[in-house]
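quick one
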Amino acid sequence: MYSFLKIQTKDLIVEKSTQYSSVKTLKKLKRQRKRKYLLCVLAAVAVSVGFMLSPLSKHPNSTTLLNHTNDIELGNFPIVEPTIKYGYVTDTLHVSEDVIQPNQFLADILLKHQVSYKTIDEIATHSKEIFDVTKLRAGKPYAIIGQDSLQAPDVFIYEPSVFRYVVYNLKNPSDIQIIEREVETKVKTASGIVETSLWNTMVDNGLSYELTSLMEDALAWSIDFHHIARGDKFKLIYDQQYIEGEPVGVGEVYAAYYKNFDNEYYAIYFENEKHQGFYDLEGRPMKKAFLKSPVRFSRISSSYNKRRFHPVLKRVKAHLGTDYAAPTGTPILAVADGVVTKRSRTRGNGKFVKIKHDESIQTQYLHMSRFQSGVRVGTHVKQGQVIGYVGQTGLATGPHVCFRFWKNGKQVNHLKENLPPPEPMPEEDLPRYYHERDLMVNRLNVIEYNTTSLKKAEDKIAKDTTASNITAVEVQK
Ligand SMILES: [Zn+2]
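structure w/ zinc ion:
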């Protein structure tokens, strides 16, 4: 039946290389793989034979001529595309993969694989200038690749991030290379209609935490993300990054649109020699002197209120701050540039930081679980810089940050304050900005809303209703 597939592999030139030390060669290999696949079966068999015969090559891209004069029956060979990992064709090699365990050192890993202590020591010394082996972190993947399990392996590979990996040559300890993976970017759009929370909507629509965070960055000065409502709508234009076809991260956000009730907000990214950042439709910077809140993804658990019943003291006591509930350890951000004037602990406030922003305004952040290291009295902090972490030190019933805004020595409700507007973009830059703005606004306008999150919410309600009907029927029996 397969007789027509009878082929001769004589004169067929295949690449022998089993080691590809750069992304370029990897890419080249991919192209070759595709080509080979089109030529198909023929090459596949030759390639697999080639790999079976070739040792772990020290010379990438060397070519060799396979001299098989025998006829090969294709039906006898499983046709598989070679598996490539870290630039190695791993099908015929011995590969052990794992993640670094807490308190595990390079020696703990390699001694088990017949690598001598001398070699490990040499690698540790050489690694200092390239990628220090003391920087291996728990939870990060590694691989050990060799000919077979009986001999000492050839390389140790550590992956500090999806974007790069480090190859330690165990046969030549001074040969350590950091390989950057090739990142492809594609301009993508995203959208949604808020059903329960912005976070749930993003997740249900298949969007990442990173993108949610970047959208907040673009709009944080205009929209109070603690007061978003059901029915709010958003659209985004951004760069999605890919490595080998897999989405790995988000690059630039070019434009964001947000609709809250009847208010529409546009944030358009613009960059020239003098300016860089997000601007509104009139060319005013989105970035204001003060962030709307000191924590992300939190909710207001108690507002500024002059007559609040205190949950711990059990009596009416003015609450002169705004409480943002968030899990312990959530970073607390300085809402504006300033200088730290207090870093202290009291019975009521717990651990707190106070920052002076200008002659009239100071902000204070209470109940921290811990301070950010390096933040002391006198430290200059930037807007958005982490100054501490959410906790419940002092008088607190749960983890939150009590945010206090001082104006001319009095505590005021920061959400009601009209804070100084930013300097607008100079007039001479506006025509160029308007041009880019119009391109982005036109692109935003044609994005249709993704309603996946709405459908999921409806399905859930339907399911819950069915479940309660069933219970009702059972009760009637
Ligand atoms: Zn409070």
